[in-house]
Specification:
By secondary structure, the chain is α+β, with helices and mostly antiparallel strands. Helices cover 36% and strands 27% of the residues. The strands form two sheets. It has a five-stranded antiparallel beta sheet, with helices on one face. Strands 6-7-8 form a three-stranded antiparallel beta sheet, with helices on one face. α1 runs antiparallel to α2. The two termini are 27 Å apart.
């Protein structure tokens, strides 16, 4: 639910506030984790056959275990606040001048907004919201940032394919 209130430090204008999940969680059953284990074992086996290095093989297995643990993590509900000056996600504040542009990315029944950073190696910032709040959020962002179509890179397409 979006509501207007003046709560952001230094903001003279209305703030759009809402609460949403920090990411979209996809249900992962035992078959998903079984496929992860199978792929990790095959990859570790191939690396061992090619390099004969136990450390590299162990690193692949460890990486798969950590990937599985991270995949099982449940999303938190975070408070979001957006004004003409910046975006607050939980306790983190982002000045809108840190971003180059924004995109609306459909993700099944929901959409998200991806904010592209100005810094070359900074990560994209993704925000989630209820579908009925999209117009108000996009209107505020459009006054400060240009809208660009988002193209999924190779890693994003892979993560969508495996429902991560």
């Amino acid at each position: 639910m979006v509501e207007d209130e003046n709560v952001m430090p230094g903001a003279d204008d209305a703030v759009i506030s809402w609460t949403a999940s920090e990411f979209i969680a996809h249900e992962k059953d035992a078959r998903w984790y079984g496929m992860l284990a199978l792929v990790a074992c095959v990859l570790a086996g191939l690396i061992f056959l090619i390099t004969r290095d136990a450390i590299s093989t162990f690193i692949v297995i460890l990486g798969a275990v950590l990937f599985g643990i991270y995949a099982a993590r449940e999303p938190r509900q975070l408070p979001y606040q957006l004004s003409d000056h910046g975006l607050r996600i939980g306790q983190r504040y982002f000045d809108l001048q840190q971003f180059r542009s924004f995109s609306v990315v459909p993700e099944g029944a929901f959409s998200s907004i991806v904010l592209m950073p100005l810094k070359r190696f900074a990560p994209m910032t993704t925000i989630y919201y209820a579908p009925e709040d999209e117009d108000r959020i996009v209107d505020v962002l459009a006054t400060q940032l240009p809208y660009v179509e988002h193209r999924h890179d190779l890693v994003e397409r892979l993560m969508r394919q495996i429902r991560f």
